Amino acid sequence: MEKHKHAKILFRFYSDLMDQEVKEKLEADAVDEQRSFYRLITIPLYTPFVAVGDVVYAEWSDDDGMLAYREKVQPSGSSTIWVVRLDDHTEIVDIRGIFEELHCLTRSASDRFFAMEVKENINYLKIRDKLNELKGEGLIDYAEPYLSEQHQY
Q: What span, in angstroms and rounded, lies between the C-alpha atoms of 2 and 127?
């Protein structure tokens, strides 16, 4: 069995929200090194157009000294959701736990913000209902930076 090569890929894009260029490094495994195809294995915290499992084309950038994202080759079907904790009396680990019980993986950026992966086979409407319930209670706010075709509503 061939061992996949692990790599970090630089994503660079302009964020209208932050009104500046943003860079994020995401981890990936080589799918086809000859063609520079890599499968993302890290939940994006800031990059709004990819999700875990997506296969991307990345090439070496001398300016950055690492692989740099060029384009998405194959979507995984997963979606990325960003969640911000608004309530100071609720721990972020508890909020993350709610979604992990619904089979969503999470990645924390701080004690106020985390990103969540919704896999292709999960009914996103149940996840969205829980997001809206927690938002209605004033516990969180959320964004849907990347919804796969399977999760469009």
A: 36
